[in-house]
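The methods section describes the discrete structure representation at length, but only in general terms. An entry of this sort, consisting of the sequence and the corresponding backbone structure tokens, reads as follows.
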Amino acid sequence: MLLEVAGVSKRYGRRSVPANDGINLTVEAGQVYGLLGHNGAGKTTLVNQIVGLIRPDQGSIRIDGHDVLADPGFARRACSIQPQSQLPIDGLTPRQAIETLGRLRGGNDQVVRGRAARLIEALTLGEWRDTDGARLSGGVKRLVSFCMAAVEPGRLVILDEPTNDVDPVRRRLLWAQVRLLADEGAAVLLVTHNVIEAERSVDRLAILDHGRVLTEGTPADLKGRIADELRLELVLDPDGDGIETPRFAGPGIVVGNRIVATVPAGMAAEAATWAGDLRRAGRIEEFSLAPATLEDAYVALVGASQSTNIKEEIDVRAA
């Protein structure tokens, strides 16, 4: 096992809610492992502990058998990381920035130059190869940041929201390179709140909420936990009024001009009839009814967790 996190907890302030609360997870070489959760779920705090920047209050972290708490310097040598924030590369071209990081990580000059050139070509960054970093768009800077982590990859590659600001076409190219890192033997820890991308890209994942691991497994495992539910999605008419989901459906989540809800599989015919009536009445433009996705499983799990957390807070205040 390349990365082993056991019972890791981290609390800020004497009475504050833990940033991490007894986290356990393992990542193997050759695996893309997703760390999935909303902003504030504890993902970045955990990453900072894995790379030796923060010491946990409890628990242990081992990378390739080495104790990170005893030797945090080893973690920084063994890991290459793409942080969530953009790396400052003003005054450097993408090629210079990527090659410099490769050399700083101990890579051979010729090998680093060749790998940098291949990454630039694979992500179609050639037209910006020799452009000053100050003149690059946010999406191009994000891709350069990925290349800086991948040009001389560590045994563990940590990618924190790697596709932020990246256009859809290059996003697909980026995921191909993430997969290649794992196929070449690295363990990849992908930190994200983008559930759709996680479903397509990871081998296994853990869902974090309020510093805890709610569940862990393959995307298929997690979707299987709501296998008796379907995803109902409505595209609203721009001039239409608000729509309340029927009693047999779960609460609707509004995203832009869409409403998404889950429906028991046994109510599929009723759901299709109800949505069809709305479309014929001109209140929606279209609808779809399909098997539940990882996003639906995520919403169901996090929603249940939030209800539990609220109850715990009430119990604590009442005590």
User: Anything to note?
Assistant: The CA atoms of residues 108 and 122 lie 21 Å apart. Residues 307-319 have pLDDT under 50 and may be disordered. The chain has two domains: 3-219, 228-291. The two ends are 43 Å apart (CA to CA).
